[in-house]
Every structure is written in C-alpha cells, then in structure tokens.
Amino acid sequence: MRTPEEQLVDASLEIGKALLLAGGEVTRVEDTITRILHAYGMREIGVFTITSLIEVTACTPDGDEIVKARRIAGSYATDLDRVERLNALSREICAQCPPPQTLAARIEAIRRPRTEAAWISYAGAVLTACSFAVFFGGSAADIPAAAILACLICWMDRRGFYKKANQLLFYLLCSMLTGFLGCVLVRMGVGVHLDKILIGCIMLTIPGISITYAMRDMLLGESITGLFRFIESLLIAATIAGGFLLSTVVAEGVLG
C-alpha cells in the first residue's frame, strides 16, 4: 500500500504531466512540482523534465527517499484554460496542504476535456483559412474552396484519425486529402488560385505554437526540451509540405 508521501509524489507527477500535455513549459512543470512537495515538508527535491519524461526524487520528513518517474505519452495541445486551472489547483495545494489521497480526483476533473460545440471549431477553422487565403493574394472566389477544405481539416482533427497514435501519419493524410480535394475543387470551378487556397488551409496545421515553445524553452535554458520540440516541429512541417506536394503531383496525373 502506498504511503501518503508516495501518493503526494504521484499526484504532483500527474499535475506535471497534465501541464505538459496542455502546453505548459518545462520550467513551469518543474517549479510546480517542487513547490507542492516543499509545502508538505519534503526535502532534497530534484525534478527533471523533458517532453517525454518527468522524474522526481525527494526525501520525506522521516528521511526516506522516494524516486518516481512518469512517461509522458499522448497528443500535445495548447489549452491555456486547463493550464490556468492546474496552476490554481497547485496554488491551493501549497496554501492548504489537503490530504494527498484527495488530489487524484481533482486532477482528473481538470484533465477531463470540456464539451465544446462543434460549430465553434468549424467556424474558427473556416475564418482562419479564408482570411489567410485572401491575405496572401487570393480573391473572393477562393473563399468557398478554402471554407470546404477548412471543414475537412477540422473534421479530421476532431475525429482524431491516427493523431494520438502517430502525429506524422495524421498530418500526412490530412495534407494529402486536402491538397487533392483542393485540386478537384479548382478544376470544378470552385476557387481560382489553388496555391492561395492551400496556403490558407496549411495555416490550420502548421506547428507555429510548437516552434515558439521550442524557442522559449531554449531561451530559458532548457536546451534538451527545446531541441526535442524544435525537431518535432520541423518533422511535422516537412510532413505537411510533402503531403501537399505529393497530392498535387498525384492530382495532376489523375485529373490530367
């Protein structure tokens, strides 16, 4: 049976994992875990975090050493509301020191995704894709095609085809289907400038936030995590570009 100190370390690891998956930076994760353990009287605390692993070592007030690690597996997504709620929970834990066995349910309640109306996601995707298509030189005639392709991307993202298992495969399939359908729509007269339409749609998939986080981590001294995130972002960007290129080549061969 786990001791209260082990339950506390497990809970702090779960908070750190939830922060990472919601887009929290590595320094935030390490500081949050350290502050929680300090609040309960733990000593000699060491926290090591990268995008795929959190490791904690700490000594209990009785002098026993606890070493635990948590493998971070899952799809990363920027959810600032979840980050804020986790921060509020960690501050409450540090101030009140509730029993460790009560923390698991509260953490799970925050990690549980909130239901969101589907139309909000589709409206945001359509607005983004159409705006960028026009911004980069497209015309009003390109808006219907950009809107259709944006809905396709949003539908695939909400369905999560292969996204949790293999993000590269997801983005490859998404870009190939979007590029091929874009060629078909332009050939049918729905849209004029194929390149501008695809530029608008690619903005929905490009990992801009991930690249920003990678630069931020490296500037904060977390070189390993920053390099991991930067390389992952480059692979995703290359996969997206390759998918769109391959789809246009295939479409030209099939459609003549």
UniProtKB/TrEMBL annotation:
Lipid bilayer topology: Multi-pass membrane protein
All copies of domain Threonine/serine exporter-like N-terminal, residue ranges: 12-248
Primary localisation category: membrane
InterPro entries for the chain: ThrE-like_N, ThrE_Dicarb/AminoAcid_Exp
Keywords tagged on the record: Cell membrane, Membrane, Transmembrane, Transmembrane helix
Protein localization: Cell membrane
Coiled-coil region: none
Residue stretches spanning the membrane: 117-137, 168-190, 196-215, 227-251
Family designation: Belongs to the ThrE exporter (TC 2.A.79) family.
Name recorded for this polypeptide: Threonine/serine exporter family protein
